Amino acid sequence: MMDRSKDAKGKDKMSGEEAKPPSLEEHLKGLNLLGEEQEESLDLSGEIDELVKEVRWLALFRVHTMKPFNHVVLFSALQNAWAAAKEVTFKVLEPNLFLVQFHCLGNWSRVMNGRPWLFRGVVIVREEYDGFSNVHAYKLDKIPVWARIQGLTKCLMKKKELAEKV
Prior knowledge:
Blueprint (H helix, E strand, L loop, with lengths): L23 H6 L15 H10 L3 E6 L7 H12 L5 E7 L2 E6 L2 H9 L3 E3 L2 E8 L24 H4 L2 H6 L1
Antiparallel strand pairs: 1-3, 1-5, 2-3, 4-5
């Protein structure tokens, strides 16, 4: 009986044919697996709860100015203006795009639903952020305002088209 050996390229030296690589089953046969496999369902509920905690009460904001400003001064001014009961975390995403996370629902609601916020007389546009989507998909170019126009007749006050133009 002749011993068939293989060269470095995996070819049979005797016949010159290329040998087939071993299948997955052949690889698994070589392993010494002890015990029985147990089919366990993955319980990720704890990890999902932690992930949700990490991405809740987030907002993106932009200061609409072309003038340079110090980010630390901005963050300090906002913390003072918001007077948050719990910690507020800021993160610079771009030179004029920021992520803020509140660690209290009350603070988040007050800031997001409160008045327009200003920094050095310039508006800060903010929008709720889910934590997963692309931050560049948010335009951050509009702010909700409430306006009172005196002297309009009642028929004009109820027109939606007029309200949209204002």
